[in-house]
Structures are given as C-alpha cells and as structure tokens.
Amino acid sequence: METLTRNTLHKTTRQDLLSRLADAFRDTYVYPETGLLLHDTLQMWREEETPEDQDTAAWCKGLTRRLRALVPDLHLNVFPRTVEETRGQAVHQGVQKFEYLAGNVAYVDLRGFFEPESAVPMLDAVMTLARPAKGLIIDLRKNGGGSGETVAYLCSHLLAARTHLQSFTERGSDFKRQSWTLPYLPHRDTEKPVVVLISKHTGSAAEEFAYNLKALKRATLIGETTAGAAHTVNIISLNDEVGAFIPTGHPISPYTEGHWEGVGVTPDIEVKSEEALEKALEHLQSLP
C-alpha cells in the first residue's frame, strides 16, 4: 500500500521533471551515447506534454514504459515517491518459505535480497537450519533483486573466504569497486550440492547471485533464462513527488569478463519455471 505525496502533476511540473531527468541521463547514464539519446528524446517529449493535470503514478508508469521501449534497460524506472510504503515480504526479509523436502533436501524460497542490517540474521538462521541437509535448493524464481552486499553475504555461506565475486565499473571513474566473500564466518557450506532455481522474473541482484555461483561452478542453475538486468543504479530525487533510477555502471566478472545485461543468466538445465523444483529434486537425488 502506498500513499502519494501528491495525486496529480501539472504540465509545467512534468516538463521540469523531464528536463531534470534528461540532464541526469546525459551526464551519468552508463553509456554516454545512450545517455545523449535519452536526453534528446526526453527534451522532445517535454514539448509534447498536454495541458491537463495527470495522475502521478500513472504518469511515472507510462514514462517508464516509454523509456524502456526506447532503451531496453530494465533498471530504467521513474516512480512516485511515497510518504508511506508497506512491503509485504519485509517481515521475513525476503525469506518466503523454508522447509525440508524429500531426500533430506533443504528448500528456501527467497523473494528479495534485503539490506544486510535486517537480512543477515534471517539468512544465518536459514543456513543453520539447512546445515544437516544432503542438498540445498535456493528458489529465486520470484526474486527481483535488492542489495548486492546481501548477495555477497549469502555467497559467503557457500564459497571459500576471500573469493572474488564481481568488479563494478562506473561511468566517469577509473576506480573499480570489488565484491568478495567475507573473510570469516562461523560456518561455511562449501561442499553441499546446491541448486538455484531461476526464471524470467529473476532480476538484478538475484541474477548476480546466480551468475556468481554458476561462474564459480558452485551451483547448478535450473529453470529459465533470467531477466537480464545487470546495471548498477543511482537513485535520485527529481522533486518531492518523483524519483528515478539512473543506471550508471555495470559489473565485470573476473571469471567470464562479462555480465548479464540484456542477455540474462542461462540455466544449466533448462525447463519451464513451474517444472524447475521437480527437476531440481530429480537432479539432487541422482547425485552420488
């Protein structure tokens, strides 16, 4: 449930928003030529704004749709800023379900990578419960992403200490931020067979988690090719009513020298999303 700070936007306000957004794309979008294209197109759209007031949420949704039609970047997003927002999954920090399945297989349905401050205790609890299992299934089929730090933390439970996961490049900077597994955890599960379930709805940070484990040959990916949203973003306020995601960088895997933007993460075993869990159980039961 969301409560908007304002229900409608006047024409002059919308035009100002488009100008500010155009400048942000021109100056900071990850690929300068594409940033210039976005800038010029938004300035053209600015002149086409109609006189009547428009609903804030509807206008943001329509603009996002038009931007993604122009540039196929799933992180392009214009959104109404809210006074109050309730996230139904926040109570469990993204952990929708944990259970043991047939064959002593632990299963976790993870719907988001929440910020480490809140997610780490829940993830520690899940991984502790999974410790006696013969195999582990991590279900990311409905996971749209979240915090890269939390991705690195969960990877730390499954990989050796100080494993290089990703490097991140940002437009206008020669510095490459790096992501590594933690140097210390009380317990790591580096040998247990792991299956990650993925679908076309698996996005962003969830794709990074799957990509990391696949690149390091630590998990078997089962399901569908993922959404293909790899860009890092800067979240900006355009005014008190509207904000935007500006993609400003991308990851570079130290193992593949690439990333998943626009192409997604491909499964090792391709099946329809709704068949992935059954296939995962078959796969784990076939292992010695």
From TrEMBL:
Pfam hit, one: Peptidase_S41
Key words of the record: Receptor
Residue runs in coiled coils: none
InterPro entries given in the database record: ClpP/crotonase-like_dom_sf, Tail-specific_protease
SMART domains in alphabetical order: TSPc
Domain Tail specific protease: from-to ranges: 71-272
Name of protein: Interphotoreceptor retinoid-binding protein
SUPFAM superfamilies documented for this protein: ClpP/crotonase
Gene Ontology biological process terms from the UniProt entry: proteolysis
GO terms assigned for molecular function: serine-type peptidase activity
